[in-house]
Each structure stands twice: as C-alpha cells, then as structure tokens.
Amino acid sequence: MSAKEAVNPGGRVSLISLSDVHVVHKARTGGLFSRDRVYALTGADLSLEPGETLGVVGESGCGKSTLAKVLVGVQRPTAGTVSFRGRDLWAMKPAERRATIGSRTGMIFQDPSTALNRRLTVRQILRDPLDVHRRGTPAQREERVRELMALVGLPRVLADGLPGQLSGGQRQRVAIARALALEPDLVVADEPTSALDVSVRAQILNLLLDLKERLGLALVFVSHDIQTVRRMSDRVITMYLGRIVEESPAGEVTDRARHPYTRALFSATPGLLDPIDPIPLAGPVPSATRPPSGCPFRTRCWKADHACAAVMPDFADAATPGHRFRCHHPVADGQSTRELVAQAATLGTADVRIATDVPPDIPPQMNAREP
Ligand SMILES: Nc1ncnc2c1ncn2[C@@H]1O[C@H](COP(=O)(O)OP(=O)(O)OP(=O)(O)O)[C@@H](O)[C@H]1O
C-alpha cells in the first residue's frame, strides 16, 4: 500500500494506516542481546477508520502487542510506513510526532497494577497528561479530572487514593480514564481484562464499549480470546508469527473463517455453546527468531504442502466484502469446524509431508533501519 492508499475506498483519509510495516528486535538471552533477530511483525498492511473497533487475535508471541505499540507510535517500525490521518508519522519532527500521537491516541495495558505509578494519587495520574500537554488552566485541569472520573464510573472520594488502595477493576478504570484524558481519536486496549477477576471483566468490557459509542472513538482491542474479541469488534485480524493472516468482519471470525489457523484458534475457545474438540495441531511451533519459509503456519497446518513451504500467499478475497485471508489451501466456505477437527485428525501434521530443505524466504532484508 502506498501513502496514497492511506485514503480509504470511500475517499476519506483513514485514521491510521500501516503499509508493509516490519518490526525486528535484537533477540535477548538471559537479559543480554544476541546476534539473532526476532521478527515480531512482518509486512503488516492495515488501515483503521474513525470510530471503528478492530480486534486482534492470535496466540502468545505472535506480535499483537508489537502491532498495538506501532499503532500508538511508541514502537518505531524497522521498515514500512505508519500514517496518521494520511501523514507519515515517522517522517515528522519528534516534537510534532509526540504532539500528534501523544494526544490523539491512548493506550490501556494488560495489568493496571504495573501500568500506573504507585506513588501518585488518582488525581495526579489523571492530571499528568493534561499538565504535560498544557491543556487549559489549572482549574480547568482539575475540572477535567473530575469529568474523567465520572466518565469511567469512579467515585470522587477516590481522587486522593493511591493505586494500591484500589481494587483491580478500579485501577483499570483509572487507566482507561488516563487514556481518555486528552480526548484521543484512537484507544488501543492490549488485553485490558486478562489480569482482572472474572467478576469484573464484563464490567470493564461494557465500559469500553459504552465509552467508544459515547465518544466516537476508534478502538483496537487485543486479546487471546476470540469470543470476546468478536463481541467487542467490527472487524478482526488474526495474527500468526508476526504476520496478519486473516482479516474479516467480526461475525465471520469464528466458524466462517477461511484461514486454518483462525479456525484452530476458534476451536480451542472455551465456553462454546456447542463444544467441539480443538483442531489438533501436532507440528512444531516455530520461533520468531527463525520463522519458517513460506507460510509461517505451515509447520502445524494439516492442509499444508510444498507450495506453503515455498511462498507466503498473497491476500485472497472471501465472498463477504472486507473478508480476506492469506492461505494456499483455505477452509472451504461453509465447512464446519467439527469437520475440520476430523480432517486434521486424519491428515496429521503437515511437517512430515513437506520437504525441510526449502530455503527460507524470510527473514526480510531489514536494511532500512537497524533495530
Ligand atoms: N523489546 C523486545 N526485544 C526482543 N524481543 C521482543 C521485544 N518485544 C517483543 N519481542 C518478541 O517479539 C515477539 C512478539 O512479541 P509480542 O509481545 O508483540 O507478542 P504478543 O502476541 O503480544 O504476545 P502476548 O500475547 O504473550 O503478549 C515475541 O517473540 C517476543 O518475545
């Protein structure tokens, strides 16, 4: 996608768009950097429209948090372009970038106990971004703190409390209020409920949905939990080993997904109305320091063959507009997950059917910027 394509098909400029974005880290072993590279994000193309909720699913280490950090401008890509309202974020002067991304985006992290400064009161935590960005007079900032507390349902008496004196749910409400302090266009929530008690998770999710509607926010919602993501989102992307492998309207991400990995993820979701066995994935789990050639999922995929080892497929369109996937052998439209469980159990691991001497087509050449 070129910078021009930061304009969406409706002719409006996307809120944020990524074009062939890569993030490569130096690998660390026991706290020390090694010569290896970690391919955390590879060739990400994505755009987000104002007011839209985008869900991001995938298992641990697939690059969800890296993508989230790229979207809020705290992670500089090793290569590729990030455009905010059509302007290349990393071509801006640092002060302009900070002003743009720092005030137009907010981020909510997984664990509010570590994300909030334990020595500051709720009032100080919420005032901090207003002070840094010099928003209004001191009296207006105090008023804004009161507004923010009301917005997220925190009683005023907690203003002088420290994070350690609050419950987990209250702490996450403070983190949400802080993310909203500067009236951002985009909020990225990275596993915002996974550190919370089950009893308060639904309250926080409902609060996020409510705030998104009331404030017209774009929301990026990152989670392992495909069912929750489906409920929260308009559109969902599935990531595997640093790659976006499927993008679909939220209603199609479960049993209408076309990528075998998305279906495997769905089959492993606990609490389905009609429980199924998970699709068995018996092959080796590849490492982000040595991604396999071709499709990164091919070592565990029951459908993979030599074509999958040779080349990463381009995106293909599914029947529903906005649904696309990268797979040489997609799941047939309408095929049930139950059928796939049986198919995978019969075919076994793809690894034994693929020659292992195919040369890798990644790592990509990351000459643009060293990590
Ligand atoms: N600063 C870093 N230095 C080195 N490697 C990193 C760094 N940050 C992330 N990684 C690696 O990049 C890959 C992607 O990490 P990321 O945190 O984005 O995954 P994730 O999908 O969010 O995982 P989780 O669900 O466990 O949070 C992983 O292999 C991770 O170990």
UniProtKB/TrEMBL annotation:
The gene is ddpF. CDD domains: ABC_NikE_OppD_transporters (cd03257). Pfam families: ABC_tran, oligo_HPY. It comes from Streptomyces jeddahensis. One of its GO terms (molecular function) is ATP hydrolysis activity. This is Putative D,D-dipeptide transport ATP-binding protein DdpF. The keyword Nucleotide-binding applies. GO terms for biological process: peptide transport; transmembrane transport. Belongs to the ABC transporter superfamily. InterPro entries: AAA+_ATPase, ABC_transp_ATP-bind, ABC_transporter-like_ATP-bd, ABC_transporter-like_CS, Oligopep_ABC_C, P-loop_NTPase. Keywords: ATP-binding, Nucleotide-binding, Transport. The keyword Metal-binding does not apply. Residues 16-266 form the ABC transporter domain.
